[in-house]
């Protein structure tokens, strides 16, 4: 037992409030994994342009693989290499989680019921290239090829004519290979929680200066969960008098429009709700401020992870009890332009606020099943409401279904201009076209 305690002490001592460059960051993550191998898993999801590993530390009771019923959560920081606060506070979050697991009941329950993926840096090359830390913009924002990674994803509204970078491709593959439910990406240069959509068109109401997703209420709740648990973000004062954000949140498009952003990609193609957290007015602040940034964000980081347990989850099975992959499961009245489908285990996860909903499960070619559910707030119990669907007449293996990476909302806008049907019928048409393609 003494050895264990010494191990904890040396690790805690090892993580100072300073900036950790590539070698130190890698060494720290490996130390953590060695010391806590029973509930952590360390892997690289790819490499940067200059060949640096994109490390992800996974924490949970089953760290190496997805377990049915346990939702997947992720934090990604430092996709702009010169925005550095997120990179360091994620290392401190890791430290806090591993040293409190099996000691603090809250953290223990969180890790037992959630699989948490933490990527401290998505742009290690940009961080290393930022030689002179500055509060404002620098070349280190971009990857080694000079590309802005937060403009580099497929866009749901317009053709994004960029070359997909290795870092972006690695994240896209990662999203495809895991069943992520909730996520946040950490930035700097402002103090606000920003949510989908970052881009828009008439279908999402962007002509009114706000680009609304079908889950706007959930996104507002997620953004407020962060801002109100943060030391000061909720005050909404922003970083100068020109910019104020009531309650410390903003719709991305309302703030400024961007195409090829990571949060919209997660939501449309990854079935994962992601928000963008701007954590510091200064992009690359002095190291002596890092401890205060950690204190300001600690509670918010934990409370935000808990929101992965909002809503309803379950499995869709056939008459023999086998899981049905690629069944469409959505809440009535909030269709996604790329329909949300079950994973290979037949699982679905829908983030919904407490209330009454009709859940529609559809196996292409068969009659839909509708179920009215009353969703409580279960985040405190670390488990969403569970509801399974069994299709007694089905005994099929469904074909893999993927949404094309074309600008889906652009197609909706075209068809709505022509015939002006509702978004719902348009989405259903899209579903039918995709299903029978």
From TrEMBL:
Active site as annotated: 278 (proton donor/acceptor)
Gene Ontology cellular-component terms listed: extracellular space
Entry GO MF terms: metallocarboxypeptidase activity; zinc ion binding
Pfam families tied to this protein: CarboxypepD_reg, Peptidase_M14
Domain Peptidase M14: 18-308
Keyword line: Carboxypeptidase, Glycoprotein, Hydrolase, Protease
Domain of life: Eukaryota
A GO BP annotation: peptide metabolic process
InterPro entries named in the record: CarboxyPept-like_regulatory, CARBOXYPEPT_ZN_1, CPM_N, Peptidase_M14, Peptidase_M14_domain
Similarity section: Belongs to the peptidase M14 family.
Name of the protein this chain belongs to: CBPM Carboxypeptidase
Organism whose genome encodes this protein: Chauna torquata
Organism placement in taxonomy: Eukaryota, Metazoa, Chordata, Craniata, Vertebrata
Gene from which this protein is expressed: Cpm
């Amino acid at each position: 037992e003494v050895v264990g305690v010494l191990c904890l002490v040396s690790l805690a001592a090892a993580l100072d409030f300073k900036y950790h460059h590539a070698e130190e960051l890698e060494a720290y993550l490996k130390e953590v994994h060695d010391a806590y191998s029973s509930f952590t898993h360390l892997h690289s999801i790819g490499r940067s342009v200059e060949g640096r590993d994109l490390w992800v530390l996974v924490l949970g009771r089953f760290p190496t693989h997805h377990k049915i019923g346990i939702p997947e959560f992720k934090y990604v920081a430092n996709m702009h290499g010169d925005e550095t606060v997120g990179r360091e506070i994620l290392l401190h979050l890791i430290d806090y989680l591993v040293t409190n697991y099996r000691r603090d009941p809250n953290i223990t329950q969180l890790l037992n019921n959630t699989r948490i993926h933490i990527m401290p840096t998505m742009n290690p090359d940009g961080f290393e290239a930022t030689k002179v830390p500055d509060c404002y913009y620098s070349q280190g924002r971009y990857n080694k090829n000079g590309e802005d990674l937060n403009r580099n994803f497929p866009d749901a509204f317009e053709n994004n004519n960029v070359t997909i970078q290795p870092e972006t491709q690695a994240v896209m593959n990662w999203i495809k290979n895991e069943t992520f439910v909730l996520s946040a990406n950490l930035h700097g240069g402002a103090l606000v929680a920003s949510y989908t959509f970052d881009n828009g068109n008439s279908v999402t109401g962007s002509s009114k200066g706000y680009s609304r997703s079908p889950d706007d209420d959930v996104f507002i709740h997620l953004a407020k969960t962060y801002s109100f648990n943060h030391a000061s973000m909720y005050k909404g004062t922003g970083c100068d008098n020109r910019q104020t954000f009531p309650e410390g949140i903003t719709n991305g498009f309302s703030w400024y429009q961007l195409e090829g952003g990571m949060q919209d990609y997660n939501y449309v193609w990854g079935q994962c709700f992601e928000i963008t957290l701007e954590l510091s007015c200064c992009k690359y602040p002095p190291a002596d401020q890092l401890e205060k940034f950690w204190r300001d964000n600690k509670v918010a980081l934990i409370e935000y992870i808990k929101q992965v347990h909002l809503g309803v989850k379950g499995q869709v099975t056939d008459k023999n009890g086998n899981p049905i992959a690629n069944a469409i499961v959505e809440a009535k009245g909030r269709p996604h332009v790329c329909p949300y489908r079950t994973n290979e285990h037949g699982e679905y996860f829908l983030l919904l606020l407490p209330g009454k909903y009709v859940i529609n499960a559809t196996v292409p070619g068969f009659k839909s099943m509708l179920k009215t559910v009353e969703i409580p707030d279960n985040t405190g119990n670390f488990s969403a409401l569970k509801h399974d669907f069994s299709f007694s007449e089905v005994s099929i293996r469904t074909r893999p279904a993927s949404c094309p990476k074309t600008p889906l909302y652009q197609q909706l806008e075209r068809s709505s201009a022509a015939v002006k049907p509702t978004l719902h019928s348009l989405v259903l048409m899209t579903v039918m076209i995709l299903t029978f393609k």
